[in-house]
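The methods section describes the discrete structure representation at length, but only in general terms. An entry of this sort, consisting of the sequence and the corresponding backbone structure tokens, reads as follows:
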Amino acid sequence: MNKKLDLGKDNINKLLLSFAIPCVISMLINSVYNIVDQIFIGKGVGTVGNAATNVIFPLVIIYGAVASIIGNGTSANLSLKLGEGKKDDAKKTLGSAITISVIVAILLGAVSYFALPILVKLFGSTETVYPYALAYGKIIALGSPFVIIYSALSNIIRADGSPKYSMIMLVIGAILNIILDPIFIFGFNMGVEGGAIATVIGQVVSCIIALAYIPKIKSVKLEKKDFKPNKSIFRILGLGLSSFITQMTVLVLFVFMNNMLTRLGANTKFGSDIPLSVYGIISKVNSLYISSILGIAIGAQPIIGFNYGAGNKKRVQEALRKVLITNFIIGIMFNLMFVLFPKQLVSLFITTGDANYELFIEFAVLTCRSFMLIMGLNALEITTSIVVQSLGNIFKATMVSFTRQIILFIPIACLLGLVFNKGIYGVLYAGPIADILCFIVCIFIFGSEYLKLSKEHSNKETIETKKLENTYNGPKIVVTISREYGSGGRYVGELLAKSLGINFYDKELISLAAKESGLSEEYISKTEQKKNSNYTGNNDDRLFLAEAKVIKDLVKKESCVIVGRCADYILKDNKNVISIFLYSDDESKVKRAIKYYGLDKEKALKEINKINKARAKHYKFYTNRDWYDLENYDLMLNVDKKGVEETAHIIEDIILKRKIDK
């Protein structure tokens, strides 16, 4: 039996190999799919065939992005619900996502099929390439539902604990495509249509294998009713949004380059079709490089994220160094291949008998030694984006993804190509300029994150769990208190616990959650402060799951008062729980906030409202319920009516009377 890997203790090299290799292989399979088509179509049809596949490639990116937002979002949500022990919610989420993926796949396939004539022109097709792109694209659009469904399901299958099944599913489709491409293109003389049919057949088979896994799902047992779409889809889409945005930046770059190359290429000896064809080939080969470094960086995410959360900053730094060094080595190897052997590289995609062979090779060499001149530097950009995301800053990670393609390259290419009239050469040389500038930006971002780890100290003073001498001997009592900021609710809870002779838990939960999750107390404390004062939607599910488990374990052992942390929802099915919501009027909240929390009198109410809004959003995110809804609670009290001490006595009387009535 294989020993379970320990992210916090095992050798970093061992962990990187274990996590990164399967990820790299899976990503490379998708790249191989596209390259194989490109090779056989190039040999069988020529320049226009390669250009046609390039024109249709933005559609492939769109299909992948849609599958990603559903698949990644569902995987994240499934893991969360299973961790909470909410198998019914997990079933509904999973079943709904599968149904939605099928519906969206069919609708997107239909839209792209009927809108194809418009899309082909939008994606940069020339008049010569147009009929080939249309013929190829129609078949790809017809097969799009299969690729969207199996791509979305492959993420779900991995999350269900079957990464090998997912990988085999992809490999079978890819191998079938490789076998069928020459049969249809050369044997049946079907040209670009043959390449498209071979691709779709491979996708159909992968889709069938993926669908066959649904009855075998291990984490939950799906029933017919679970496949009904529900509102959990919005949560799914939110969790998968980051990867969707990243892929859409690639789409924007691809469409921009296609249009610029065809427009400006027309004024050169190369014409419009050759630049379009060459860019498609270079991009597909470059995808092998991108897949490799992305796979390593993504594979390292759980290692970096776990150790960062656990406060093991030295292990985080070690992982960062090794990921960056590995990716730079890969980047240098690919960079040398593009610069030193461009002719040999692109010759795989065209025959010497092609009428455009000489011009094709000339432009390919020019592109490799200009546009791709220092492409190895991109290793830092991609690594930085994934690393920053692993450290919890989704916004900064997204901005890094935007930097090279959108913020730098497109404006520079327009400036050189159009404003300074450098034409297609200006667009090509915009590549290395953008690479250098992006590299400099990423040095500062990566460097600041790395140095920040050196300055942070995980050995902070431990927050001790202060316990009273429990004097309560009656039937178990558990009180959850949700409260507005400044209402005095926490003090009410302390007084209530002391009067009843039971334990009180608020900040004391931080230490317990740290032990449960492996996250450092410092990290948990900072995360809770951010959650309460500057809610951005970037919740840490690990923290929520750890606190939920701690809360459930506590109520099994003892009577207690628990403040905040969605405890009323976590314990909603527990019969021994009384849930209370405490609020106050604005004037009283402001007075307390000024007196006890030192808020500025002029800004106090604004800050209070901001914090309460953040608490409500956090509660909504994890419970899908309205924080202020009286249906959530057994009791809602305005603390100002009787004051803090009397409110505590009122709650105590109600609890004791409830106990007697029982």
User: Anything to note?
Assistant: Strands lie at 478-483, 503-505, 560-563, 577-583, 635-638. Residues 253-458 form one domain. The chain has three domains: 10-239, 253-458, 478-661. The two ends are 51 Å apart (CA to CA).
